[in-house]
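pasting 1326_t:CDS:1 for the record, 189 residues
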Amino acid sequence: MYKLRPLVHRSLYKTRATNLPKFSKIAPLGSQFARFSNTSNLKYNTAQIFFLTEIFRGMWVVLENFFRPPYTIYYPYEKGALSPRFRGEHALRRRGKVVCPAQAITIEAETREDGSRRTTRYDIDMTKCIYCGFCQEACPVDAIVEGPNFEYATETREELLYNKEKLLANGDKWEPEIAKNLEANQYYV
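structre below
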């Protein structure tokens, strides 16, 4: 009743005859009309074909989504909303002290005449930074923060070595947004 045919021709195998492919069954003639075997399926399928219900369902989905606003934004021209806890470019706020435990940050200090310490060098190597936020958490006076800026691509590696002046400039530039984000973030701490 069934004619057996190999899945792959024997000449494609370079092994012995014991590793021949398994045989597949060819469906008998007329099995593609099995969905019309009883009258209820016949009526249902005939109605679907005659009234084109699948096409109308698909067109309904298209019309529903046609009048919805788009989910995308035009990125360089439109900016999406950022969370207050977003970790972007580093900035140094003008505060009294600076403390950070990260390996990407280099801090050198010297003692003053009165015995207190003064920071002489404060550098962040942005190529080493993993934006974990530990430096922001460890700083007791919120001097080092990760600001809302995430568009600071550069052409050279040297531009990603931030010194104290660059960090203070970032802090001055983003101070209103940084203060707003820190105020909104106080509930999470």
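Residues 48 and 54 are 7 Å apart (CA to CA).
The chain has four helices and seven strands.
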